[in-house]
Amino acid sequence: TLKSVEGKHYTIHNTERPLFQNIIGGTVTKVNLGNVNINMPWADRIAPIADTIKGGAKIEDVKVTGNVLGRNWVSGFIDKIDNQGTLRNVAFIGNVTSVGDG
């Protein structure tokens, strides 16, 4: 679980790679990603938080701002929700660019 102290909302700034590959049964809450600049034109399944959330994983009260560039299957938040993953009260503000054909 990755979360802020109760009553606080923290921001991780200037990330250049996805925070996680997969989140299985975990929780990310009240944590923002600010000024994201992911520039991976050679890579597929690119998203700032994670490629996949599954197994009851929850992403809640999270905002991402910035730019995301990848080849195929590019997202501003997560790429795939599987097996009861949940997004709640989330936002992406920025640009998402796919340079591939998928």
UniProtKB/TrEMBL annotation:
<dbReference type="GO" id="GO:0004222">
    <property type="term" value="F:metalloendopeptidase activity"/>
</dbReference>
<dbReference type="Pfam" id="PF05342">
    <property type="entry name" value="Peptidase_M26_N"/>
</dbReference>
<dbReference type="InterPro" id="IPR008006">
    <property type="entry name" value="Peptidase_M26_N_dom"/>
</dbReference>
<feature type="domain" description="Peptidase M26 N-terminal">
    <location>
        <begin position="5"/>
        <end position="66"/>
    </location>
</feature>
<dbReference type="GO" id="GO:0016020">
    <property type="term" value="C:membrane"/>
</dbReference>
<protein>
    <recommendedName>
        <fullName>Peptidase M26 N-terminal domain-containing protein</fullName>
    </recommendedName>
</protein>
<dbReference type="GO" id="GO:0008270">
    <property type="term" value="F:zinc ion binding"/>
</dbReference>
